[in-house]
Amino acid sequence: MLKNYSQFLLGLVCFSCSTLFAQVREIAITIDDLPFVGSTHNDPGRIRRENERLTKILDTLNQYKVPAACFVIAGTIEKDQWQLLEKFRNDGYLLGNHTYSHRSLNSVTAQQYTQDIERADKVLAPLLVGNKYFRYPYLAESQGEKKQQVYDFLTAHGYVIAPVTVDSKDFQFNAQFLAIHWRNRQQNLPSFKKRYLTFIWNQTLKAEARAKKRGDADSRQILLIHANLLNSLVLKDIIEMYQKNGYKIVSLEEILSAGSLPVEVEPKAILLSPLLKSLLEKSPSAD
């Protein structure tokens, strides 16, 4: 009897340990639209501000030693921004192809789309170190034969497709933040930050639920954010939020090589979710 009880306890301990160690929480941070959202204005003052904000993003990544993956729109690289992209590469960050023109695959032919990828590839070649990675603009992969043609092209040219499991929808929050007069942005930042982080974490919990539904014991996620004003101000808060909630921030390569692929989100929906709509409605109006 005592022997059986001891075996039961040993089994319970082993089960508890295996369960504990199975609860892996890892996330890769990916940043789209480098060098900066809304580039190609050729305005010296605007380019200077964009470069300062992108530098702030880079400094934050370096400070927290976050192995982010960044996807570049080749056709939006302004004068003097190439050196900044080289700094990302030299500091060890993965840079990937986000096409030349950032057009949705849903709005062009497969041939037009693959030509745009090739055009970007030629521009970005000096920045693409090691394996080549690709992120679909707008997460739009189309469907049917067109989807297959582009997929076959990417595979034939050695590209790894970067999926997304946590879509921050930051373009919505950033647009509202930009609508506020620049003199009033700093005072409104705390409320924006709170709502933005709340939404990202809710998206993360949804991603965890999708993975659990598939039967995954671990939570391995890929976050999508963009190189924009809002993230230049709150990236450190995003990083700290994940760390405080038990997430280890790892590289995109680590997530994709961990075994089963992450459960992707659906392409960006036109309709707003109830939570996102309520959070955006709380935003202050522009002055």
UniProtKB/TrEMBL annotation:
Gene Ontology biological process terms in this record: carbohydrate metabolic process
Ranges of residues in domain NodB homology: 35-250
CDD domains in UniProt: CE4_NodB_like_1 (cd10960)
Signal peptide: 1-22
GO cellular component, one term: membrane
Molecular-function GO term, any one: metal ion binding
Keywords: Hydrolase, Metal-binding, Signal
Keyword hit for Hydrolase: yes
Pfam families listed in its UniProt record: Polysacc_deac_1
PANTHER family: CHITIN DEACETYLASE 1-RELATED (PTHR10587:SF133), GLYCOSYL TRANSFERASE-RELATED (PTHR10587)
Name of the protein this chain belongs to: Polysaccharide deacetylase
Phylogenetic lineage: Bacteria, Pseudomonadati, Pseudomonadota, Gammaproteobacteria, Legionellales
